[in-house]
Amino acid sequence: MKNGTLYIVGFAIIAIMCLGFLAYGATQGYDFGGADDGAEGVVEEVDPDYEPWWNG
Description:
Elements: H1 3-27, H2 35-46
């Protein structure tokens, strides 16, 4: 096989594996929350009277 073909096959295998992991996580009901969601709870614990200066 040529090097170009090996790169394409390798990329395809990695892409299929990534899609499989994403599909598995979606079927398990995991909630992929971002860092902003976690930070909001911490800010409320540290300073319950905090008012955000911008809400967008």
